[in-house]
Amino acid sequence: MAEEIEKSLIEDLIKTALDARKNSYSPYSNYKVGAALLCDDGISIYSGCNIENASYPCGICAERVALGKAVSDGHRKFKAIAVAGSSEEICTPCGLCRQALYEFSPDLTVICCGSKGNYEIHSLKELLAGGFGASSMQ
Length: 138
Description:
Low-confidence stretches: none
Strand order of the largest sheet: 2-1-3-4-5
Shape: globular
Number of helices: 4
Mean pLDDT: 95
Helix content: 25-40%
């Protein structure tokens, strides 16, 4: 079950994710994605946007941009992430992002948003059933 997050904090994360889309570099898909990652201190929020590349495998998703920024600043545990796409449909993290987030916080709360701020809340374990982590290697 996803951790209970205050409604005002959910709204802040959604707004940050929606705003992060403005910096998206997505000339190929024209699908802008923003993410807002809340650290376990309950205060620090790192945003990211998707960055596409003409060589498609070189692109990076918004979630992993936010994760990379947070990890490079020394954060290793996270409470929640909001992910917002540029269509009204709910945007969920791709499998690669789910796995990258699982490495640090298997119990992460994932707020999946549409472009109008509509959202659903899931646990990362729900989205990545049977996730592979450090304990899998013992």
